[in-house]
Amino acid sequence: MQNVAPKTITIQNPYSLLNRIFEIGNSEICMREDVGLLAYSPLGFGVLSGKYLNGNMPEDSRLKLFPNLSRFSGENSMKATGMYFNISKKHDLSLTQMALSFVNSRPFVTSNIIGATKLNQLKENIESINIDLSEDVLKGIDLESGVFKNWYDKAKSRGYDLYSTASYLDYKTYIHSDILTKVDIASMMNSLEVRTPLIAVSYTH
User: Fold this and answer.
1) What is d(CA 18, CA 80) in angstroms, rounded to the nearest whole number?
2) How far apart are CA 54 and CA 70, in angstroms?
3) Distance CA 143, CA 147 (A)
């Protein structure tokens, strides 16, 4: 009798506003197979708190104490963080809570793995669960940053709501179907390319 391994029920991958690569293919598989994402590094080693903007390097910060953890501290990461900071300020949100609430809002996320070194940081992180980002904020993240503009525009033009679980899956099915023309496919591929010299939808370099 062949042994059958237990079904996978969760997967722990990095996911944040600075690293949305998980959305390209893994998110659909996880949603269809009922496998929840345990999103780790949702603040990109604390970069999405905004404390490293404008060249700041707090003495007791993680990047100061562990300079080898520099994945999210490059020029592109800081540029993106600055864009997200402006969006959060526009909507009277802290950057930290906007970044964590964004992760919480994704239909494929089961748990958001937060981390803090101070009680005030922990309090701010935990309170993010009570924040529901408006569609204006979500659109701002996708459109003002430019990362997902083609994706968003194409979905909206066909009546799909990328912030609805069912519609998200329907749209994923659509873009993988034979309905797409070669021009459409090229357009969708372009939607996964950031408008700055980055890799896919990751700001890690």
Assistant:
1) 7
2) 16
3) 7
Degrees, nearest 5: CA angle 88-71-204: 60
Q: Would you say 30 and 3 are in contact if contact means Cβ atoms under 8 Å apart? A: no
Closest by alpha carbon to 24, among 187, 157, 197, 193? 193
Low-confidence ranges of the chain (pLDDT < 50): 176-205
Sequence-separated (6 or more) residues with CB below 8 Å from residue 35: 8, 9, 10, 11, 29
Amino acid occupying residue 37 = L
Distance CA 31, CA 36 (A): 7
| Residue from 175, 155, 154, 146 nearest 24 by CA | 175
Q: Which two tokens stand for residue 3?
A: 């042994």
Q: What is the pLDDT of residue 100?
A: 96
> Partners of 202 in the beta sheet?
19, 199
DSSP assigned state of 55: G
Contact 52, 73 (CB under 8 A): yes
Q: Is the dihedral of CA 195, 200, 202, 204 positive or negative?
A: negative
